[in-house]
Amino acid sequence: MKKVFLASLATAALLLTVSAVPANAAPSPRSYKNCAELNKVYPHGVGKSGARDKTSGKPVTTFRANNTVYSYNDGGANRHTGEYDLDRDNDGIACEKR
Fold first, then answer.
1. Residue 4 and residue 91: Cα distance in Å, rounded?
2. pLDDT score of 79
3. What residues does 47 pair with on adjacent strands?
4. Neighbours of 50 (CB within 10 A)
5. Would you state the pLDDT for residue 66?
6. Are strands 93-94 and 46-47 parallel, antiparallel or unpaired?
7. Would you list the DSSP string of the chain?
8. Within a 10 A sphere around the Cβ of 62, how many other Cβ atoms?
9. CA of 29: how far to CAs of 14, 46, 67, 82, in Å?
10. How many Å from the N-terminal Cα to the C-terminal Cα in the chain?
11. Which stretch of 11-15, 40-44, 56-60 has the lowest confidence by average pLDDT?
12. pLDDT of residue 75
């Protein structure tokens, strides 16, 4: 009886380990249709590492720096299927907002 219990416990632990997904797992990079969709996932926008917001007021600094996601949404060379230009001021940050 004890061997059966230990075997089932080990199997359950193995299944939990294999199927566990980290809570902070980032969504896979994709092109968003508009800023409303992108801001649902990235509330302050997404930009290249080291990008600076072009503005006459206080610049946005809370955007997510992710070169891959930005490249899917910059509209530059249209490298990705269905890519939209969500960085209209071309400052390296797409859909920035406070």
1. 62
2. 73
3. 65, 93
4. 8
5. 95
6. antiparallel
7. -HHHHHHHHHHHHHHHHHH---TTPPPPP---SSHHHHHHHSTT-EE-TT-----SSSPP--SEE-HHHHHHHS-SS--STT-----TT-SSEES---
8. 11
9. 30, 11, 10, 13
10. 60
11. 11-15
12. 80
Contacts by 33-42, CB closer than 8 A, 24 or more apart = 33/84, 34/84, 34/86, 35/86, 35/94, 35/95, 35/97, 38/73, 38/86, 38/94, 38/95, 39/95, 39/97, 42/69, 42/95
pTM of the entire predicted model: 0.69
The encoded tokens of residue 53 equal: 């917001």
Residue 36 reports pLDDT greater than 80: yes
**Is 2 a residue whose pLDDT tops 70?**
no
Per-residue pLDDT averaged across 62-85, rounded? 85
